[in-house]
Write a structure and sequence with these properties.
homodimer, alpha/beta, 17% strand
Chain lengths: 551, 551
C-alpha cells in the first residue's frame, strides 16, 4: 500500500483554497474529483477522502500559526449549489475496516481542532452552507461555532448515513447534534432518518443551524457575520505569522528520523520506539527571539515531529502494536522552555504552541497502540515531556545507574505544565485522571515542581508503574513485550480505549468512546459491509438486503 | 429456540440460595454445573450463563421487596475455595452475537440493580470472596459496596478476559475498575493483563478490594463487617415484606398478556405493540392498605409486567425492530397513584416501588428497539406513564377526537413524577435530557403539573414529536413504520444508543455506551470469534492465532 503522508502545504492543495481578507479568512472547499488518495472512486460533489481531510487539517493548523491576523474563518464551498456530500461512499465501500476506522479518527481530530481554534485561539469558525451539506458535510459544519444556511428552497442540512448507508454519522454527527447543538432527541431521531434533510426556517427552529439567509443577501450576510464575530476576538493586531516549513524528515525502511524525534520500527516484534530529544538550543532571549526562531523553536518543532510520527504509525504501520516512548536530553532545558512558554503566556504564538502540544498529546491518547514509557538515565521526562510518561499505558523506570554509564540516575521532574496545560479529552489533566482515587496526591505532587524524582520515589508517588534495577530491567521489559505481543490486538484496543479515560466524560470523549465504538461495530456488520450490505451496494442501483435481527 | 423466561422464584433456583439471619442476608452462589440454560456446556467453578443471572436478578429484587428487615447482603460462594469463574466461556463461544450482547446487557442491569439497592434501598451489598473471583466473578464483586478477600495465598481477584479470551471484561469491569474503584490506569492496565490476578495486601493497595482477612478469621470478619454495615442502614425495623407472586401472564403465539400490560406481536411487520393499562382500582386508603395489596398495588404490578414484557421482547423477539407504546385508562387515576406514592414517600415499600419503576424505565432506554409512543383518546400518558412517551424515540399525538369516538381528546398530563423521580442512566430526567438546549422549558413545564395538555399545545411545548389530525394519522403512522422497517437494524441500534443519552455521562452510561460498544465490536472480530479466535478455541488446548493489525 502507498504510504499515507500527513504533510502538505497550500502550494500542493488539490481540494482547498485559503483566501484571506483582513481579519477574515475563507477556507474554500473545492474538491478535485480526480484527486482521491486511492484509485477506484471519484470525489464528486465535494465528497472527501482522507487526502482531502489531510489538507483541511493542514489549513486549520496554518491559519492558526501563519495568520495571527485572522480572527474569523468562513468554511464555504467553491462549487455552486453544492456544499459537501460528506465522506465518499465508494471509498468507504472499498476501504478495509482498519482504514475506515483510521479515516474517521483523523477526521474527528480535525473537527476537534477546528473547535479548539474557535475556543482557544479565538480564531472562530463559521460555516456558510450554500447547497446541500449532507453527512460528513454537515458534520464539518457542526464543528463550526456558527452555522449559516442559504434559504433557497433547495439547500439543506442532512445526516442521511442511516437511511442511505446503514452506518452512523460517525464523525461526531450524532453527538454534536444532541450535545453541542442540543437538538431535542426525538427531532434528532427524525432528522437522522431523513435522506433529504431539513432546510429553511425549520432548520433554525430545530437548532440545526444558527441562521438562514435569503440567497439575495447571502454573500453580504456571511461577510457581515464574519466581521462581527472577528471583532470579538482577542487575537493580536499587527502580529506576523510563523511559517510552518517542511519537516526535516527522512523515511527509511525501518526508521523515520526528524530533527528531534526518531522512530525505530521492529516489525518482527510488532514494536516501534519513539525517541524524543530535548532542546539542543538555549531558551530564546526574548519573545521576539522565539518568534524569530519560528518553527525551529524547540517546543513547536517537537510538537510537529511527534504528531507526524504518531500519525505515520497509525496509518502506515498497523501491525505495530506496542510503542516504546523514550526521551533523550537535558531535563532542565525542557523545563526552561516550559518556563519560557509560561512567562510569555500572553503572546499569541506561545499560546498556539501550548494548545498544539495539547492536541498532539491527545492524539497519543486515542492512538490504538500500547504505549510504554521507558525512563532511563539520560532521559528528560520533565514538564511537557513528562506528559508522555503519563500518557503511556505503563511506565518503567530504572533504579540507579547502569554499569559503565556515568550519567545521573533517571528522574522525572514535574513542572507547571503537568498541572493544567494539557487536559485530556475528558477535560482533566493526565495526573488528575491518574489519581482519580487520590486527588490529594495531585496537590502534594504540585509541591514537587522542579525537583527531580528518582525511581523509587517516583514509584512511591505513583508516577511510574514499575521501578527496576539494572539487572532486572532487560528481562522484565522483554517479558512484558512478549506478553503484550501475544494478546489480541482488538482486545488491547478496546481495553485501552476504556482504561485511558477515567473520570468525567465530555463531548470529545463521547465522540471517541461511545459514537466511534458503535460506528466501528456497525462497520463490521453484514448489513453495512456484507455483499448485500448498504455500503457495498451504494450506487449500484441494487437495494441492500438487511438481516432483521435487532442486537 | 427455547423461550427465555425471566420469571423465577427461590423454590425453583438451581444456582443461588438466600439465607437470612436477622438484618443480614447471605446470597450464596452455588451453581449447578448441569443447570445451564442450553446444552453444550457445563457451568463448572461457579461460572454462569443467563439462567444463573436471571436467578440473581430475582434474588436481588426479592430481597428488596420481601425482606425489609435485611440491611446488608453478603454475596458469597457456596463452594469451597472457589468464588466465581465468571461467564461460562463455552457458552460464550457457542452463543450467537445477539445472545452475547443480550446476555451482557442483562447482567449489566443486574449489577446496576445491586448498586441501586445499596445506594437507594440502603440494603447494602458486601462481597465476600473466598477463592478466585475471575472475570465476571470479580465484576460481580465490583457491584458490591464493600469487597472482602480472603488472604490465603491462593485466592485472587482477576480480569483475565483480555489475556485469556481476547475479549473485554465487558460487564462493567473496565469501567468500575477505573471509575468506581478508581484504580490508577497503569495499574488497571497491568491488572487486566494478568491471568492469575492479584491477591493479598497488594489487592488492597491497588484499590481492587477493600480489605483482606486471614482465613482463620474469615467467617467472623465477614459477619462483623455485615453487621456493622447493616447498622448504618435506614431500613425500617419490624416491617413485613411484600411477596412477589407469580405474574398473571399468558403467552400465545402473537401475544403476551398480563393483568395490566398486553404485548401484541406482528412479526410480518417486525412490529410489537405494548399496551399499558392505567389503574382499575382506587388509590389505597392508607399506606397499610397499599401494603395489604402487596404486588397487586397498581404501580408495582405495572412495573413487574412491563419489565417482563420488555425483557421478553429483547430475548425472544429479536426480529421485532419497532415497539409502539400505548396506554389505556384514566389519567387522573394514574396521577392519584403518583400522589399516593409521593405522600407515602417515607414508607420503605413506596420507596422500593418508585426505584423499581425507575429501573424498568431504564431498561426501556437501553433496549435495542425503536420505541414510538402513540398518544390517542382514551390513553393515560400522565405522570409515571408519561415517562413512557419521553422514553420513546418519537411520539405521535392525535389532535382532537375520532369520528364516532366520544372520549375526550388525547392529553398528556405532567406530574411531579416527571421532575426527578426517574432519572435516566445519565443522572438527569428524561425531560431534562429532552430539553438540554432549553433548560428553562423544564421549569415552565413544571408549572403545568396536573393540567391536561392536548395535542397542539403538547407539540408547541415540545412534549411530542408530531401532532396529527385523525385524517392524517393512519397514513403518517404507516409511512413512518414502513420507513423504519426499511432501515438497517444495526444502524438503528447504534443511532438510538447515541441519541437517547444526551448530556452528562455517568459510570452507568459509560458502561452501556463506551464499554458495551467496544465489547460488541470485539465480539465480532475474528481474533475473538473466528475459527482461530480465542473464544472459539478456549479449552481446546489449541492456542488462538491473531491477526496483528491494530485498529
Amino acid at each position: 500500500m502507498t504510504r499515507i503522508d500527513f504533510q502538505t502545504d497550500p502550494s500542493r492543495y488539490r481540494h482547498w483554497k485559503i483566501e484571506t481578507n483582513g481579519d477574515v479568512a475563507y477556507l474554500i472547499m473545492d474538491v478535485d474529483p480526480a484527486g482521491g488518495l486511492s484509485d477506484g472512486y471519484e470525489l464528486k460533489l465535494n465528497s472527501y477522502d482522507l487526502g482531502v481531510d489531510i489538507e483541511l487539517n493542514d489549513a486549520v493548523q496554518r491559519l492558526r500559526f501563519e495568520h495571527p491576523e485572522v480572527r474569523a474563518v468562513v468554511i464555504k464551498s467553491g462549487k455552486d449549489n453544492v456544499f459537501c456530500a460528506g465522506a465518499n461512499i465508494r471509498m468507504l465501500g472499498k476501504a478495509t475496516h482498519g482504514h475506515k476506522v483510521n479515516f474517521c479518527k483523523f477526521t474527528n481530530e480535525t473537527r476537534l481542532a477546528i473547535e479548539d481554534a474557535s475556543e482557544n485561539s479565538k480564531q472562530v469558525y463559521i460555516c456558510a452552507i450554500n447547497g446541500n451539506a449532507a453527512g460528513g458535510g454537515y458534520e464539518l459544519a457542526l464543528a463550526a461555532d456558527h452555522i449559516m444556511l442559504v434559504d433557497d428552497r433547495r439547500s439543506a442540512v442532512a445526516l442521511p448515513e442511516t437511511p442511505l448507508l446503514a452506518v452512523l454519522p460517525g464523525t461526531g454527527g450524532l453527538t454534536r447534534v444532541t450535545d453541542k447543538r442540543k437538538v431535542r432527541r426525538d427531532r434528532a431521531d427524525v432528522f437522522c432518518s431523513i435522506e433529504e434533510g431539513i432546510r429553511g426556517a425549520k432548520a433554525v427552529e430545530w437548532r440545526l443551524v444558527d441562521e438562514v439567509v435569503p440567497n439575495s443577501k447571502w454573500k453580504e450576510a456571511v461577510a457581515a457575520r464574519a466581521h462581527e464575530i472577528a471583532a470579538r476576538s482577542d487575537r493580536p493586531a499587527g502580529a506576523k505569522g510563523v511559517a510552518l516549513t517542511p519537516l526535516a524528515r527522512r523515511i527509511e525502511a525501518d526508521r523515520v528520523s526528524y530533527s528531534h524525534v526518531d522512530v525505530e520500527i521492529d516489525r518482527a516484534r510488532g514494536l516501534a520506539t519513539i525517541i524524543v530529544r530535548g532542546p539542543a538550543q538555549d531558551v530564546p532571549a526574548s519573545v521576539e527571539a522565539a518568534h524569530a526562531l519560528g518553527d525551529k523553536f524547540w517546543p513547536l518543532t517537537v510538537a510537529r515531529e511527534l504528531e507526524d510520527a504518531i500519525l505515520h504509525l497509525r496509518a502506515n504501520e498497523a501491525a505495530i502494536g506496542v510503542v516504546l516512548l523514550r526521551t533523550d536530553g537535558n531535563a532542565e532545558a525542557v523545563l526552561a522552555h516550559d518556563d519560557f512558554l509560561s512567562r510569555a503566556n500572553g503572546d499569541w504564538l506561545m499560546r498556539e504552541v501550548r494548545h498544539y502540544l495539547k492536541r498532539v498529546l491527545k492524539r497519543v491518547d486515542v492512538t490504538p497502540k500500547s504505549f510504554i514509557a521507558l525512563i532511563e538515565p539520560g532521559s528528560c521526562f520533565a514538564g511537557t515531556l513528562a506528559e508522555l510518561a503519563f500518557a503511556a499505558d505503563r511506565s518503567l523506570m530504572l533504579i540507579g545507574t547502569r554499569d559503565g554509564d556515568n550519567r545521573a540516575p533517571a528522574a522525572i521532574t514535574l513542572g507547571q505544565a503537568n498541572f493544567g496545560w494539557y487536559p485530556m479529552g475528558n477535560g482533566i489533566t493526565r495526573l488528575q485522571t491518574r489519581f482519580l482515587g487520590e486527588p490529594e496526591q495531585v496537590d502534594s505532587l504540585e509541591e514537587k515542581i522542579g525537583a527531580p524524582v528518582e525511581a523509587e520515589e517516583a514509584a512511591e508517588f505513583g508516577l511510574v508503574t514499575f521501578a527496576y534495577e539494572d539487572f532486572d530491567w532487560d528481562d522484565e521489559l522483554r517479558v512484558m513485550l512478549e506478553e503484550r505481543a501475544s494478546f489480541s490486538p482488538d482486545a488491547m484496543t478496546g481495553m485501552e480505549a476504556n482504561l485511558r479515560f477515567a473520570g468525567p466524560e465530555t463531548m470529545e470523549t463521547k465522540i471517541f468512546g461511545r459514537l466511534t465504538a458503535w460506528q466501528n461495530w456497525i462497520f463490521q456488520r453484514p448489513n453495512a459491509i456484507g455483499e448485500q450490505g448498504a455500503l457495498k451496494l451504494y450506487g449500484s442501483g441494487v437495494s441492500p438486503t438487511f438481516g432483521r435481527e435487532r442486537v
